[in-house]
Amino acid sequence: QLVESGGGSVQPGGSLRLSCTASGMTFDHRDMAWLRQVPGKGREGVAYMSAFGDPIYADFLKGRFIISRDNAKNVFHLQMNNLEPEDSATYYCVSVLERGNWKKGEWMYWGRGTQVTVS
Known about the structure:
The chain is mainly β. Helix content is 0%, strand content 52%. The protein has no helices and 11 strands. The strands form 2 sheets. Strands 2, 4, 5, 6, 9, 10 and 11 form a 7-stranded mixed sheet that branches. It starts with a strand and ends with a strand.
């Protein structure tokens, strides 16, 4: 089970740090990602980290977000800087990509989401 935390409301230009903790599983040697969704819009891939720690970011981020992991604490993070109103969404942490690409593919484990509002 994955549990997100750290969402909230912030003004444009502000920062938030999302965290994802796991129970009953470890992040060691597992790929993971942050996805987001706005009601009425399709799911977007935000950031991905391979099992080896290599990050991939969505092009629209322009270097504003950083994905990281701490295997010792079994947690991974999404540091979000210079937030824009367009970043408002429910953010989900996911792990273990079963098929497809990381942005639109099928993930085995999902968190329940944390809301981020930028206004």
